[in-house]
């Protein structure tokens, strides 16, 4: 069984040993915005939804719970999930949160280079230690109550097993491990201003290591068999890449999800302060990532606010894809900046449509939105290339990969072939592959991937579109630069 816990949706998916999906159940949770820039969730609701998703998945599969060999969970990286000394939730901050912008800037000014030298990251607003520093400064009473710091999937693992653990991929991805050895480091905590936070850090495990077993209480709540092994789990960008067939050095994964994830695997992390982060998930297993919250969340916002409008549209994403397919690309099409949740270049960045004329239709707006998301992925990819991280093909995953029009736009816009995996739930599948390794079903991630993943579609770049996208990408960047002073005014 693979569990995939995103910023809102929790999914439970059962696969056979060939990677074919047997059953799946998903539940959408609620985020709250108690203040501008604050994005939080109720952790008790997250666990309740996980229980329903797991139980319903088992029931719909018609299997005995004892047939589940092992469980792997993947979860969104960063954010902050704090428990008190008894294991009760204190606060759940999601990775779309921007409250830590000022703290990140202060930490960056004071210790950015020293931090990067240790963890290969500089502070940013929704980074876990930045948020913990924000809590320490702004909510001292809550900080004093804190007993354990977890990431999203760690909280679910804790409720399943009673074990307080995190894995190396998530903890390195959030900047809390010394790289490349992926170890806790007191000097690193000191640089974050968190010298007293060492007792909050949970036991560190390998992602595919069995971190615990389903407890009797969790078995009653979920329908799982007591004693079922649960592995440490994954930073979801790693598991999604594995579920789309990518894990070996030199292979690339582009995830068109809530975040714009652009990542290339390697046997050693790239040391370059222009690259957003590097995460480690085993000996000589690293992924180099440049990313920001600028991807398919923009389309989700458009659908929610302008297409569904009360839930009356039977196929809102189908409607969007159909409108885009009607448009013949032109030089004077509108442009869109996908900065609804800020940018890696600045939390103050904002989204916007530009250059709309009276003859433009909804299809033009939606095409501009999809193109703007692709352009931001391209910007991240160019950052990786400048750092020496190159690739000649990529696996596309995430919700955007299921569009009939977006994958070809990516192939044309970045001018490399892209493929889309057969599995739609790549994050859950990657976690299940890891569970197979932990349970001894597969000896390596590569053998698990070979057994459980397949390509469903491939897209070759159209050379005739290269000049079109090159010109529009330069205009996109010029417009971004022109808007910077306006955004900086707040």
From TrEMBL:
One example GO MF annotation: kinase activity
Entries under CDD domains matching the protein: ASKHA_NBD_FGGY_EcLyxK-like (cd07802)
InterPro entries, per the entry: Carb_kinase_FGGY (IPR000577), Carb_kinase_FGGY_CS (IPR018483), FGGY_C (IPR018485), FGGY_Carb_Kinase (IPR050406), FGGY_N (IPR018484)
The keyword Kinase belongs to this UniProt entry's keyword annotation: yes
PROSITE patterns, per database record: FGGY_KINASES_2 (PS00445)
Carbohydrate kinase FGGY C-terminal domain sequence ranges: 253-438
Residue ranges annotated for the Carbohydrate kinase FGGY N-terminal domain, each copy included: 2-243
Pfam families: FGGY_C (PF02782), FGGY_N (PF00370)
Keywords of this entry: Kinase, Transferase
Recorded superkingdom: Bacteria
Similarity remark: Belongs to the FGGY kinase family.
Name listed for the protein in its UniProt record: Carbohydrate kinase
Phylogenetic placement of the source organism: Bacteria, Pseudomonadati, Pseudomonadota, Alphaproteobacteria, Rhodobacterales
